[in-house]
Design a protein that fits this description.
Layout: H1 14-22, H2 28-31, H3 46-51, H4 65-70, H5 76-87, E1 94-101, E2 105-106, H6 110-117, E3 122-126, E4 132-133, E5 140-145, H7 146-149, H8 153-177, E6 182-184, H9 195-205, E7 209-210, H10 213-218, H11 229-235, H12 238-248, E8 256-258, H13 265-276, E9 282-285, H14 296-308, E10 315-319, H15 326-333, E11 337-340, H16 342-345, E12 352-359, E13 362-363, E14 380-381
Parallel strand pairs: 6-7, 6-11, 8-9, 9-10, 10-11
Antiparallel strand pairs: 1-5, 1-12, 2-4, 3-5, 3-14, 12-13
Helix pairs in contact: 1-6, 6-8, 8-9, 12-13, 13-14, 14-15
Length: 383
Amino acid sequence: MAWTHRTAECRIEMSLTLNVCYNYCNMDIVRGVISPMNTRGTVSDLSQVRSFTVDPGRRLFSATHEEIVQGYTTDLYFVKTRQILDSMNLADTQVTAEIFPRKRGILAGLPECLGLLEGADVEAWAIPEGESFEPKETIMRIRGKYAEFGVYETCLLGILASSCAWATAAHELRVAAGDKPFICFGARHMHPAVAPVMERAAIVGGANGASCILGAKLGGQEPKGTVPHAVFLIAGDTVEVAKVYDAEMPSGDPRIILVDTFKDEAEESLRVAEALREKLEGVRLDTPGERGGVTPDLVREIRARLDQAGFGHVEIFVSGGVTPERIPVLVEAGADSFGIGSYISGASPIDMTMDIKEVEGKPVAKRGRIPGLIDNPKLVQVM
C-alpha cells in the first residue's frame, strides 16, 4: 500500500472544524447533570473525585464536553500524580512531552486535542491532519507546566488513537478506490456520542462524504445518503418509492435508488430506470449476505442490462461488506461508487504513548527510551 501525504484539496480546514465543534453548547450544566466549576476547573485531587456525582436520572452515559474538559474521563492515576506533585510543590514544573504511535497511520483528531488544551498555558506542535506517520514518529509535542496538561494525557491519547485509526482505514479505502468516490456509512456501528468523530475522521482519511449529519457537518460537508429498506417495505413497491423520492427530494439531491428489496436486482434496476429515465443517477446494491451479498458477477450483469436498455448513464453504487480487497474487483465489474461502514468503524485503535522527554529543559526518559526530544521536521507549531 502506498502511504502518501494528503493533498491540499483533501485537507479539512482546522479552523472550520473547531468553530463548528464549539458551536455545540453543553446543556448538561444547565440541566443540573454536573455542577459548573471555573473556566478550566480540572480535577486535581481525590477529594474532587469522591465529591463528583452522577445524576441517577441521566439519560445518556456518554461524557459531556464539560466533564471531559474538567478531567473526569481521565485515568485516576493522573489525579493522584497531580495531588502528589502539589504536595511536593512540583506541579508547576516545566516539562516537554511527546506523543508517538505504535504503528503507521494517518493523523486525525488534532482539532479536538487543541480544543481540549484551549486555555492552558502551553505550547504545542503537531504534524498536520491528513499526514502519514510511521511507528514511533513524534506526532505531537506539548511544553508547559505539568499542572496545565498532565491530567489530559488519557483524553489526548484516546482522541488520537481512535481518530487516527478511522482516518487510516479510510485512507486504505481511498488507495484501493482510486478516483471512485465512497461515503462513510459507519455511524450505526458506533455509540452515537462518538459516531460523528468517526465519520469526520473518515473524511480526513479520504472519504468523499459521510451519512451521519453531525459527522458530515464537523467535516465541513453536507451529509450524503439514500434511503433504507424500511421505506420500500412500508410502501410495498420500489418504483412507487422512486417516483415519490424524485418528487420530494431537492433538485440537487442525486436520484440513487435501492433496488434489492423485493425483486431480482437487475429486474428492479430496469424498472426504476424506465420510471425515472434521465433523472436516475444510480442504483444502489446492498444485497444481504444471506443471499450472497453484492458479487462482481451481479454488478457485471446489471451494468450490461442497463447499457443494453439505453441506460448507460445510470451508475452502480455498492454498499455492504466493502473492503479494500473487494473494491478493485467490484470496480472492474462496473461499480462506480461505494458506501462503506464497518471497515472504517471497526478499525482497531492505534496505540499512542505520551512520554515526558524534558524536565526543566533537561533531557529525561524512562529506561528503554532515549532521553531528550525526538526531532520530526513535519511538526508545526499549533499552539
